[in-house]
Structures are given as structure tokens and as C-alpha cells.
Specification:
Blueprint: H1 3-13, H2 42-90
Length: about 90
Amino acid sequence: MSENSAYRDISLLKHQLPANVFEKQPTRDLLGVKRPISEPSLPNILAELREMQRLRIEDKSLIDDLRRQNDRLKSMLLRYNRALQKYLDLL
């Protein structure tokens, strides 16, 4: 990654960062995890952004899986309701 593209990435994503990202934070990183860190540097900030993007992708994947499960459960419930209604109609 060239230095220019790294600065461009930071400038594009700076609105997603907390306002105090460039202040000294000796005990918390950008994700709020307690661990000692040095002054934020460009590589540290980019590493944190990559981690946040990875977690976001994992969250999206989980949401998609839950939606698929929900759709399957809805269709199963509809089938059972139809079968139950047919049975009740026969009584």
C-alpha cells in the first residue's frame, strides 16, 4: 500500500473514527479494548480500521445467516399451519 493511498483511506474514513482518535489514549484502542497502546500512528490506525471492517463483515454474514434461518422457519410454520388447518377441516 502506498503512503498516498493510506492517507486517502484515512481521509475517506475519518468520519467513522471517534473524535478523540488522535489524542493520547494509553489504555484503550479504537475498539474500546483495554490494552496499552502508544500514540496513534498511521499503521496503528489502519490496523484498527481493518479490524473494524473485518468485524463488520462478520456481523453482516451473521445477519444474513439469521435472515435465512428466519425465512426457513417462517415457511415451515406456514406449512404446519396449512397441514393443521386441513386436519381440522376434516374433523
